[in-house]
Amino acid sequence: MEASREFVYQKFTEYYQDPSTLIPATTMPEQREFAYLMFKERFMVRHRRFAEFKNLRSALAETVPSDVYHSCAYYENPDFDMDKKGWLGADLVFDIDADHIPTNCDKIHDEFTCTKCGFSCRGIIPETCPACEATKFEAKTWPCELCIQSARDETAKLLDMLENDFGFSQDDLHVYFSGHRGYHVHIENEAVRSLDAMARKEIVDYVTGLGLGILDKEPEEKRGKSVASKKFSLHNFGWNRRLKLGMQNFLLNATKEDLKKAGIRNNALLKNRETIIKRCINEGRWESINDVSVQTWLKLAEYIRDSQSSKIDTVVTTDIHRLIRMNGTLHGKTGLKKVEFPAKNLQTFDPFTGAVAFKKGTTKVLVSDAPEFRLGGETLGPYKNQTVELPVAAAVMLICKRRAVVAN
Amino acid sequence: MQMETAGFTRNDLAKYPFLKETAEYIKPLDLQIDDLTSMGMDQILKRAEERVNETILYRRITRNIQNTALEIASFPVALLLVIATENSLIKKRYALAEAKQASSDLANEPKEKILKIALDFDWKIKLTAKESSDSPSEFIIYFTDYLRNTSHLHDKKWKLTNSILSEGNIYLNKKDVARLLEEEVRRRVEKRLDVKVPKFPAEFTLIAERIKKLAQETIGQSELDEMPKVVVQAAFPPCINALYADAASSHHLSHIGRFTLTAFLVNIGMTPESLNELFKTFSDYNERLTRYQIEHIAGERGSGTHYTSPQCSILQTHGVCKNKDDFCRRIYHPLAYYKRKQRTINSG
Ligand code: SF4
Ligand SMILES: [Zn+2]
Ligand SMILES: [Zn+2]
């Protein structure tokens, strides 16, 4: 193993072997499958069972994996083959990752190189190489503050729905920084454990606002009637309430620009805002303003739906066997740890200090390329082809992100 | 045999024989399979056979509340008869008919009784104080109980997204609660039918044979709609076309996209060999992985499960449903799309 990987491995070893490292116990470990990625061999060890949490800790200290996971599912026999495990239930989990959502930074900090022709570019990784149409890339990603802010915004919308619509208390909602560019929310309540994949799919559709009847234009259209003949109406609960509130807020503050963004060309909505809100939204007389058609309302409702829905990873939540990163363990792509914080602290919890695992020492690295970044209370960079002495956490992160090597 | 049970009247138990309490009620009768044919219980047996026959012929079960004792006792015996047929179609039909009958009876009951029956299924359900703008319906039920019974219903009205959801509870009217209880009853009856009884008395086997014969004549082949034999690409649904085009032009397919495409092609009758040949022409083809995946889906590996491609609603959730067209409105599954479209191609 080259010196840089060896250095990271060394630091991971210290982390897992230090008895003062705090790794919170997983709920009911004896019923879960554990899995980990071997640091050097790069393969995934799966179907491990630990009767007691302390056994898991010593296994981590011994093997020092690069990434550690456990099943969100509970099994009779977590160490058996998949079809013989005996599924007993599963936590309800949500994953929000900046990789999957549009962000304000446009990911200009990510760099990808086509493995076939070597074409290299910054920004969102395309499906196919612009130069040769191949589909495999070497990616160098970066956990930037804007990326994390976008993920945080999506998480805030999710938490709001889970609390107000689904009635979970703040104590039910376990919120984590994922260790890379996103957040996880786990719900371990008895009530959700037995939900099957289809029931979870319905929850996903709720969170993403999919299948709202009011926006379902097909039946009328297809029967030859125009959309305009459709009646517009909303009740006061669930998504209907969210649409109403969203429309009201939009109307209170909207500019012409905002309207354009929503795809509405008609400016009538901006004229008598107060009257429109009162008559249409509050009293439900949606057709009472001449210049505002059902079509306009539908457009606006759709825009509100898109902005209020939470862009979770749909596959994670519907998968009742899913492996998810274990709380308190290190992320192999950053050296940051997955860490829990109270739901109410979502906006104030700072991953770049709260998730830092290596707090001591410095080391010299040769950095090829890094933007300015914040870590462990310090602002560092930008660097370009230079040797610098960095705090261990920053050095580990740059090496994991393949932007630096140990200098000798 | 004058027995008053705690919650329900004997009339109720006759109408809703699947309730937990019915089992309590029947216990003192101490029904044993062997006794049934001997102890002059032929009346019960007769009514039980009638129950099963009705479900096969009319998908309904009449209620005979003149003789509640007979009615109640005939239910578990009917279950035994259905079990003795060892026929999954008859089992399904029977459970569904009991459920449908119960649901339509329930819709005419006072809400207090509906509540009691829902509690028998351990629902978290309450009556609301009064209909008002704060509580738009008579019942509130916890969302997990709702999802358990709606997630596979196709009507958009049941989607959680459209429900009256607030703080974990969903407002429902009487009719809707009765409809959801139908699902619950169906599952409970199905579960009770899903057992193996080692040996039935000769008389049971005889009746079971009669029932099977009736089922064969009535249900026939109609429910075993067959998949066309040759693969007709013109009948592919839009989502599959899109996946196919992506794969062919070497675009990256998501895991679920790849699974959907492969399972669909396996399901419509492509052999693993010809599929492998097809995938070879795609540029990011990985022989080992592809072969493994195809054989896994076709049930030739591992647990031997034969996988079915996912239904439309699942593909919608994960963004795989694309370019819906006219045909899509009438189906819930890409395979149903394929069957239907092919029929029109053939007839047109
Ligand atoms: S509706 Fe169903 S068949 Fe039609 S494109 Fe969508 S997923 Fe495919
Ligand atoms: Zn290329
Ligand atoms: Zn960014």
Task: Offer a concise description of the structure.
The complex is a heterodimer of chains A (408) and B (348). Chain A is an alpha+beta fold.
Keywords:
heterodimer, A: 408 residues, alpha+beta, DNA primase, PRIM domain, Helicase, Ruva Protein, domain 3, 4 domains, B: 348 residues, mainly alpha, Transcription Elongation Factor S-II, Chain A, 2 domains, four-stranded antiparallel β-sheet, 4 strands, 55% helix, globular, disordered N terminus, binds iron/sulfur cluster, binds zinc ion
Characterise the protein shown here:
The complex is a heterodimer of chains A (408) and B (348). Chain A has 13 helices and 18 strands. Mean pLDDT of chain A is 92; it is low at 219-223. With 408 residues, chain A is α+β, with helices and mostly antiparallel strands. In chain A, the strands form 6 sheets. Chain A has a 4-stranded antiparallel β-sheet, with no helix packed on it. In chain A, strands 6-11-10-13 form a 4-stranded antiparallel β-sheet. With 348 residues, chain B is mainly alpha-helical. Chains A and B meet through helix 5, helix 6 and helix 11 of A and helix 8, strand 3 and helix 15 of B. Bound molecules: iron/sulfur cluster and zinc ion (2 copies). Residues 237-239, 312, 315, 321, 324, 328, 334, 337 of chain B line the site of iron/sulfur cluster (SF4).
